[in-house]
Specification:
- This protein is an alpha/beta fold and 155 residues long.
- It has three helices and seven strands; from the N terminus they run βααββββαββ.
- Strands 5-4-3-7-6 form a five-stranded mixed beta sheet. It has a two-stranded parallel sheet with strand order 1-2.
- Strand 3 and strand 4 form a beta hairpin.
C-alpha cells in the first residue's frame, strides 16, 4: 500500500476491520501455533506436509495481521458533514436517466461491495455525487460513457 494513499473508512468499516484483527490475533493465531506444535511432534520436518501447510497458513495470517494493523493505523474515519450533502457514510437514492432508481451507501474503497450496494467514493459515480445535494442532476463520466443521475434522497 502506498504511504501517501489515504485510507477512508466509515465507522462501521473501521469496526469490521478491528473485529477481524482481534479474531485473527486471539483465535486464529493460537490455533495455527497449536497446529505447528502438533506437526513438529510428528518428527521429520523435511517431508511433513502438515508442517508445511501450517507454516503457509501462519505466513498468510501474519501478512493479513500486518495489513489490518497498517490500515487501522493510517485510516481516516469519515464524518458525515450534514444530511443535505452526499459524503462517505451517506446512503443515497439515485434516479438514472432511464428512470431506474437505486440506493447506495457511499463508502471508502476498502469497504466497496457492489453486491451489497456499497459504492466507493473513488468510483466514477462516487466521485460525481460526493459533495452534491438532493435534487441535483449530475453527469457521471464512466469507462462505458457518460450518463446522468438525479439525487432523489439522502440519509
Amino acid at each position: 500500500m502506498n504511504e501517501n494513499e489515504k485510507i477512508m473508512l466509515t465507522a462501521e468499516g473501521y469496526l469490521e476491520l478491528e473485529t477481524e484483527l482481534k479474531e485473527l490475533k486471539t483465535v486464529t493465531r493460537p490455533q495455527i501455533i497449536k497446529e505447528l506444535k502438533e506437526a513438529r511432534a510428528q518428527g521429520d520436518l523435511s517431508e511433513n506436509s502438515d508442517y508445511d501447510a501450517a507454516r503457509d497458513a501462519q505466513a498468510k495470517l501474519e501478512g493479513r495481521i500486518k495489513e489490518l494493523e497498517y490500515k487501522l493505523e493510517h485510516c481516516t474515519i469519515a464524518e458525515q458533514l450534514g444530511s443535505d450533502t452526499v459524503c462517505v457514510g451517506s446512503t443515497v437514492t439515485l434516479i438514472y436517466d432511464d428512470g431506474e432508481e437505486d440506493t447506495y451507501k457511499i463508502v471508502g474503497s476498502l469497504e466497496a461491495d457492489p453486491f451489497d450496494n456499497k459504492v466507493s467514493n473513488e468510483s466514477p459515480i462516487g466521485k460525481a455525487i460526493v459533495g452534491k445535494k438532493v435534487g441535483e442532476e449530475i453527469e457521471v463520466e464512466s469507462p462505458n460513457g457518460s450518463y446522468k443521475v438525479v439525487i432523489k434522497a439522502l440519509a
